[in-house]
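Worked example 3 (structure in, sequence out).
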């Protein structure tokens, strides 16, 4: 059960943020509207939402998930792997003091983005990507071991972040796409397999009674609903243009 989320409003500089997609420049006003709908959906799921102000200095800072990993026991402040994003952790570290007595930290030469961390109950999977290196993943594993969590490190082949291609819904159910469909590390789970054409839908989020999914992925929606979950669909077009997904836009705890 989650009770809270932290989000951060989209800045005007968002349209000039980092991206590897070739989907074009986002429309700022449309992105703002999509973000507002996202916040409304979090509230519909029963969360109390802390909304941080936009920060023009950090174009990608609406993607708050990369700045921290939160469990019942502690907050881990990450060390984001993109130099233009690294300073985003300064504000988040302060904000999290309201909610957590214990804060741990990933230190250079270790780098880690929260988007590379998937929690499955007492087990973490950490992707090695262009943003997360082995040193960062090993520091993270050592921190979580103190609190009774195991960690598996998963080198990524193609996905941008680990959670670009995988989501945990609970009940041993994983949503998987691309390189994770037949990945040996995920053999033990029930898999909801996302087609290549709908790969963006693999980044969905289970929050309490709902799974929030991106709008327009009918086959994936049906598979998730057939597995017994209620869905909320959100238009994510302007978020996808900057390599963002549903999980990236919030910290949920
Ligand atoms: N645009 C999101 C990121 O590159 O981290």
């Amino acid at each position: 059960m989650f009770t809270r989320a932290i989000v951060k409003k989209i800045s005007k500089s968002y349209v000039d943020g980092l991206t590897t997609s070739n989907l074009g420049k986002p429309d700022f006003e449309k992105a703002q509207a999509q973000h507002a709908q996202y916040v409304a959906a979090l509230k519909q799921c029963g969360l109390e939402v802390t909304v941080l102000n936009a920060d023009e200095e950090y174009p990608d800072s609406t993607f708050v998930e990369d700045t921290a990993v939160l469990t019942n026991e502690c907050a881990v402040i990450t060390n984001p792997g993109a130099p233009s994003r690294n300073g985003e952790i300064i504000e988040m570290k302060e904000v999290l003091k309201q909610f957590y007595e214990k804060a741990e930290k990933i230190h250079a030469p270790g780098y880690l983005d929260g988007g590379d961390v998937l929690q499955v109950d007492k087990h973490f999977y950490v992707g090695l990507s262009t943003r997360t290196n082995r040193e960062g993943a090993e520091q993270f594993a050592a921190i979580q071991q103190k609190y009774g969590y195991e960690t598996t490190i998963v080198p990524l082949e193609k996905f941008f972040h680990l959670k670009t291609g995988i989501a945990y819904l609970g009940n041993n159910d994983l949503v998987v796409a691309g390189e994770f469909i037949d990945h040996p590390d995920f053999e033990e789970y029930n898999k909801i397999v996302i087609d290549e054409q709908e790969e963006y839908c693999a980044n969905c989020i289970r929050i309490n009674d709902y799974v929030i999914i991106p709008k327009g992925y009918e086959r994936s929606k049906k598979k998730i609903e057939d597995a017994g979950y209620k869905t909320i669909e959100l238009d994510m077009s302007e978020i996808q243009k900057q390599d963002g997904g549903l999980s990236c836009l919030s910290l949920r705890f």
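Notes: Helices lie at 28-44, 88-96, 134-146, 218-226, 237-240. The two ends are 8 Å apart (CA to CA).
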